[in-house]
Write a sequence for this structure.
């Protein structure tokens, strides 16, 4: 039986009170709904006022690298550029990922039935997509009655349960990164140098890289051989 706790980098819009509270509530329901198996790391809880733009960016990219899995909210008529960059960084690091879209609007440049965003952000391995109609799910929760708090809790719990199911599924995908421990350390070191900024200094910290990679290997998220 797997008794590990997995950290989830949970990225999405965080520029108004609805986003901030919605992110926090869903993260809480994922934590509780998984009985502690998944612990969400929210960028909004990491960022501090008074730090520079590059420090915020570096802090978030480092959190992407350190987390075991990732969850990206792809709501909106246009995808948030920050979330897309973080998603691609996660894919370079072979991190199992779930994309969540609750926006019922469609867009993008794909054929009918394709993802409702630009095709360049689709088709990557070790990724699952949960696209649901938030309005329909909300109305179904509303029809069950109760206070707004009860309606919201049922709504969030339902989304969290669907996310947890896909996290379990994508976590079981076979890693694609080759080269075992040494290969993973080399790629992670390169990813830090690629990002630049203060992450260049991290690239020289062999103990840090080994710790990050060994944690993922222990959990079966990267190849150890």
């Amino acid at each position: 039986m797997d008794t590990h706790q997995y950290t989830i980098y949970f990225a999405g819009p965080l520029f108004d009170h609805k986003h901030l509270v919605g992110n926090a509530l869903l993260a809480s329901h994922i934590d509780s709904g998984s009985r502690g198996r998944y612990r969400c790391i929210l960028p909004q809880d990491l960022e501090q006022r008074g730090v520079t733009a590059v420090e915020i960016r570096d802090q978030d990219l480092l959190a992407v690298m350190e987390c075991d899995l990732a969850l990206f909210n792809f709501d909106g008529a246009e995808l948030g550029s920050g979330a897309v960059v973080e998603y691609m960084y996660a894919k370079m690091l072979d991190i199992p990922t779930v994309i969540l879209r609750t926006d019922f609007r469609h867009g993008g440049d794909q054929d009918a039935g394709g993802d409702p965003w630009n095709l360049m952000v689709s088709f990557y391995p070790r990724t699952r997509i949960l696209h649901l109609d938030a309005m329909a799910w909300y109305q179904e929760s509303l029809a069950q009655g109760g206070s707004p708090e009860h309606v919201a809790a049922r709504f969030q719990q339902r989304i969290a349960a669907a996310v947890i199911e896909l996290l379990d599924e994508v976590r079981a995908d076979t890693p694609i990164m080759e080269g075992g421990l040494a290969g993973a350390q080399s790629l992670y070191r390169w990813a830090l140098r690629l990002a630049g900024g203060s992450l260049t200094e991290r690239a020289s910290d062999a103990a840090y890289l080994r710790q990050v990679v060994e944690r993922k290997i222990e959990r079966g998220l990267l190849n150890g051989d």
